[in-house]
Design a protein that fits this description.
By secondary structure, this protein is α/β, with parallel strands linked by helices. The chain is built from ten helices and twelve strands. Strands 7-8-9-6-5-4-3-2-1-10-11-12 form a twelve-stranded mixed β-sheet. Helix 1 crosses helix 9 and helix 3 packs parallel to helix 5. Bound molecules: S-adenosylmethionine (SAM) and iron/sulfur cluster.
Length: 324
């Protein structure tokens, strides 16, 4: 599918639940988000039906996210079903890693094409402070288990936020000691994220170079996303940056998002898209859904304007229902 600016849209992120077993400072309030009711969240058969339609429209890659996808019952079955849809070439998962260890064998069995583990600190106290309730040892154990599958494509996602004095170099070291890529994601002013400032890519690079030497830009594109990567001498994995604000990549955006309530979002910043759940539950046919998706994609905004004030149609949903 192409949007009105000629961008090919072939990647969709599905948030399959807004529930989560962590409470990261920049994502959820302490008491948790006001959760969507069971009826509001798409049922698996609705996700699968939409995925078939997305595949017909040229969507090739699906990312399963949340909330924490692994807290939703039978999430694996959903992933396996989506893996079998004709036209879908890759199904990947983004997880906080807490429950991952329990599901790894099955994820590998269904042929998961990649797993991103979010990990903002390896330090027990700091991890607890950032996630409010998390035990980093569980995530480390999941990572160690995942590393036993040499063919599994693994990435670590870390969100640094300025002023919090995060121990980022420990996270960087994961790519030295293991064949995993470590990516730093600029915090976006959405939901709880509005309370924090992103840490500039240049500041993170300076910190890394001071300890590990020059970061050499990598020509190869790794994965489906907007990260740009660097190599460090002696490192097994690469260091990546997803810098939506300081290095805007909207011109090459290839993605759309489906919230857990079935709203098709065409840009992270705006409430612009299509309420597919409403259409499904009103009895829309596949071709009507297809038309609604096409129309929404044609209206995909050219770019975000996170640095601009007074935005019309600004997103009010929480990151957990959008899926990151
Ligand atoms: N629970 C899973 C996890 O943490 O990986 C999946 C959902 S989470 C919303 C997906 C990603 O979004 C995580 O890597 C998280 O760190 C990131 N994220 C959450 N809020 C963010 C924000 N305001 N800006 C940038 N990234 C954010
Ligand atoms: Fe949960 Fe992921 Fe949000 Fe953290 S970032 S609260 S793990 S959904």
């Amino acid at each position: 599918m192409r949007d009105s600016y000629g961008r090919t849209i072939d990647y969709i992120r599905l948030s399959i639940t807004d529930r989560c077993n962590l409470r990261c400072l920049y994502c959820m309030p302490e008491q948790g988000v006001e959760l969507c009711g069971h009826d509001e969240v798409l049922r698996y058969e609705e996700f699968v039906r939409l995925c078939r339609i997305f595949a017909n429209l040229g969507m090739k890659k699906v990312k399963i996210t949340g909330g924490e996808a692994l807290v939703r019952k039978d999430a694996l079955h959903l992933m396996e079903t989506i893996k079998h849809i004709e036209g879908i070439e890759q199904v990947t998962l983004t997880t906080n890693g807490v429950l991952l260890g329990d599901y790894l064998d099955d994820l590998v069995k269904i042929g998961i094409d990649g797993i991103n583990i979010s990990l903002d600190s390896l330090d027990r106290d700091e991890f607890k402070r950032i996630t409010r309730v998390g035990d980093v040892e569980k995530v480390k154990a999941s990572l160690q288990k995942a590393l036993r599958y040499p063919k599994l494509k693994l990435k670590i996602n870390c969100v640094p936020f300025d002023g919090e004095n995060q121990k980022l170099l420990d996270v960087v070291a994961l790519a030295e000691d293991n064949p995993v890529h470590v990516r730093f994601i600029e915090i976006m002013p959405i939901g709880e994220g509005k309370k924090y400032h992103f840490m500039h890519e240049d500041a993170i690079k300076a910190l890394i170079e001071e300890k590990y030497g020059i970061l050499t830009p990598c020509a190869d594109k790794l994965g489906n996303g907007p990260s740009h990567y660097f190599s460090l001498r002696g490192f097994q994995g690469k260091i990546g940056f997803i810098s939506a604000i300081s290095h805007k990549f909207c011109h090459e955006c290839n993605r759309i998002r489906l919230t857990c309530t079935g709203y098709l979002k065409t840009c992270l910043q705006y409430e612009i898209g299509a309420d597919l759940r409403e259409l499904i539950r009103q009895g829309a046919s596949d071709s009507m859904l297809e038309a609604a998706i096409r129309q929404a994609v044609l209206k995909k905004p050219l770019e975000h304007a996170f640095l601009q004030k007074d935005i019309v149609f600004e997103e009010h949903a929480k990151m957990a229902s959008i899926g990151g």
